[in-house]
Structures are given as C-alpha cells and as structure tokens.
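Collaborator request, handled under Task 6.
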Amino acid sequence: MDIQKYEAFLKTIELGSITKAAEALCYSQSGISRMIQEVEKELSLSLLERGRGGVRLTAEGTKLLPQMKTLCNAYQSLLQQAGDVKELTAGLIRIGTFSSVATHWLPSIIREFQKDYPNIEYEFLLGDYREIEAWIREGRVDCGFLCLPVRPDLDTIFLERDDFLAILPATHPLAQAECIFLDALCKEPFLMLEKDKNAEIADFFRREGLSPNVRFTTWDDYAILSIVESGLGVSLLPRLILKRIPYQVAAKETVPSFHRDIVLALRDRKTAPLAVRRFLEYLPHR
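Structure tokens returned to the collaborator:
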C-alpha cells in the first residue's frame, strides 16, 4: 500500500483544494489528482466531488475519512517507533541503586528489557540514599532508586511500599510470636542499619519514644542477617531484602509497623535519554 496517496487525499480535504494541497506537499496538481484517483480506484468508490469552489467529500468519502486518518496516523507512529528502535541499537543506562533493589528487582527488569533492546549496556552504582540522590542531581547516573522523601526538584515514579520486619535468630524465644512489639526488641542487642544521615530506623524508634540497645551499626543488609543468624542480636530490615535469603532467621511484623516508600528518581523524565525513557516502561517487571 502506498500511504502517500492517502496523505495527499487527507491534505486535499484539509485545505479544500487540489492546488493548495499540491503547494503544501510540493507536488504538481496533476500528481495530486493522480494520487486521489488511485485511492478511489483502490477502494472502488467515488470519494470527492470537484467543482469551481474546490473539492468536497462524497457521502462515501465522509464515511471513510476517519479510517483514513487512523491509517495515516498509524503509519506515522510506525515510522517514529522504527526510528526509536534504530536509536536504541546501542547505548548506556547508568543506574544508582541500593543493595536490595540491585539484588531482587534489577535482574528481572533488565532481563525483560534486554529481550527488546539486547545491545544496551548498564552501569550500576551502589550507594546509600544520600549518595544516590547526589549522583542523580550531578548527572553521574541517569536515574536512581530512592526512598521518600526526596528533593522536590527530582522527578519520581512511585514503585512500592516496603514494610520493615523484625529479624531474629531462628532459635530466639520471640521467633514463635505472631508479631513483635518494638519495646521487646529494645531489650535485645540491636543491629542498626544506618549510615550518616540515612537513619530511618533510628528515627522511627525516636518517634515512638524508644531507645534500642544498639551494639552494631552498618549499612550492609547482608552483614546484619549473618550476625543475627549467629545469635548475636536482633534487627529491623525491609521486607524486600529478605527475598530468597540463605540465612536461617525469623522475620516478623512489628507493632507498631512502619515502612519505606521506594521510588525511581531522575532529573526530568521528559528530557531523559531515549534508552532511559524506554527502561521506565519495564519497571513493572520487577
């Protein structure tokens, strides 16, 4: 199918004149007339009435006009998509992330993304929330996973609410409880997940008027799991990090409960590189 003749037909209807359509599309009048005739021949219908005042649609032409517009719009969309695919034959996506997302979300997202864009390369920078936010603002990464709140000048996509759970040795007496009251955790040696200003667990205890017996402080989730498994203390960790772990620990909901809101952040979704904008479409595959 020659789509140009349908575009010429639509332009003629839009401008109401074969002469004006020819000028707009840089064709001769005879060329436009010939393309219109080809459309009518292809459809075996008379679509235009020609007169001194210009052209107008016949009843048949009026009925088919919406489908012709849909056809031409779909063709332009096809060309746009084809151009995008050509642009994505190579590229680099730089992602700032923390360990639980890097471990449990990114492999699934990238696996699906690579099915459509196999030549894209990736660079992961692991850090804490403060570092990742700075990397995004500085342009060191194209996008990054963060937890709310974030700076208002960043564009964010909400992904998931992630509850914090109490983590205890599998043999701990509280491991058989249905849920764990926070004041009970304060009586045990506590492993604090914290780094610099990233102190959401400490802030939560503070809001509840509680003081845990902190014996270890680290930003390494897996180090905490290993130490808890060894029976050296208890902790609070996000549910996400507990997927498919090899450690023998008990994970219990807490009273009161609290959570973190995970988002993907970038400077501006509209001006992000094409590869990044396409990557965003695959976030549901996490």
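The cover message to the collaborator said: "Residues 91-159+262-285 form a domain with the D-Maltodextrin-Binding Protein; domain 2 fold (CATH 3.40.190.10). The chain has three domains: 3-87, 91-159+262-285, 161-259. Please let us know whether this matches your experimental observations."
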